[in-house]
Request: fold
Amino acid sequence: MDNTFEPVIIGFLCNWCSYRAADLAGTARLHYAPNMRPIRVMCSGRVEPDMVLKALRFGADGVLIAGCHPGECHYIEGNLKTLRRYTLLKRMLSQFGIEEERVQLVWASASEGNLLAEAVSRMTESLRALGPLRWNDMLISGNGHGAKDVVKKIVAEMATQEAGT
Amino acid sequence: MTENGKPKFAMYWAASCGGCEISTLNIGDKILDVDANFDIVFWPVAADFKYDDVRAYPDGYIDLCLFNGAIRNSENEEIARLLRRKSKILVAFGSCASLGGIPALANFTTSASIFNTVFLDNVSTDNPGGTLPEPISQVPEGEIHIPEFFNSVKSLEQVVEIDYTIPGCPPEAHQISAVVDAVIAVFQNIATLPPKGSILGASKVAVCEECKLEKKEKLIQRFYRPYEISPQPGICLLEQGLVCMGPATRGGCGALCPKVGMGCRGCYGPLNGVEDQGARFLSAMASVTDVGTAKDGEHTAEQNIKAVMDSVADPAGTFYRFSLSHSLLNRARQTNGAGKGKMNEPHQH
Reply:
């Protein structure tokens, strides 16, 4: 395994708790893995399973969903809806051969910057150990059908590069 | 090849069960209209034309080609490309051609694993030499070529450009009749073709809209498999804990399955604007459960929710029963092909 592999984690952080926890982690100058790309959502319950699948399909090595602790949701029970979806999603993903470390749900309140930072670092290390997911590449090499899209994308990228030079 | 000026009609089956042809013949008297208005130039199940006949037609010779079945092997793909070239209107007909359908469930495993189950590791198989199908093999008489078995099943659209889709497993006969009427009207110049890419012979709203069963927005404590309970008549199946994909499935069938107490299988595919039918249905499933409340505390809530979600049998295979080729993930991860062709078991803790 290449030790320099840096996993890409898409983080869906709820506006009321976890995004503020991330904010706190930043203002408190905590050191933690820089591998998570945070996306702010109003509630972790906003995170549809499609969003997680799309992230995994198009290049993420893992997805972190973070929300308020049960009982502390700004929308009363949004995070419990998240938990129901997530529990079923995790079962389904295991049938696709996706390790459970790759999709994680953590509860982090606005004061728990350290907890969120730790979760991100821990997840980064476990994904580093698992190695890259590369879902799209897998579809192409296994005569799946991402091939056409990817070729189109590469051709388009080459065209823009040529136009730029 | 007869030249009688009638529009040319073709129908082909790739990786399919033949149900689409049966449904087409189920249009009854209307089949005479098809015969009166079209000249059948290729239809393996009904007429004796060969691939070479199709190859000999000029490009664009076939006016309407209904293509059913998924793309499972190189023969399917070759004929899909051939028919695309020869057809003015190419229709992905039925769930397999439009979404991958039942054959696409094989995307949960690998071709190596399938071969292992079918040709090697099986109680009813006698194959001492361990012979497996090879695209090219040498025999005393010469070289034999057979189609290559793909690792992933694809829909028609993932191989060639299509003009229209008629969904369903199989498409309902009355919907096929309506489409046949519409196409005849086009060829008689009394109507115009719908925009390219349209989904024909189906509704724009979910199966639930057509379903007469009463919905009370009741939440459930656990899920059941069909053999575990007898559904109460007249009440929404999902609210009784039976898996019914109605909320995430395009209507047009008249809610045939829920009508007789069987949850919707999802064969008409996702609704407009939905990329991934399985994920949408997963969402719906999670929304009808009400276990695990804020009062329970974190740990108990997690335990209770896990228990109810564990009562869903084979979530991936159920939610993507017909649409795996057109899902975001598309197939399961490749493993080393060991085992008996069964998919990865859900983790048990």
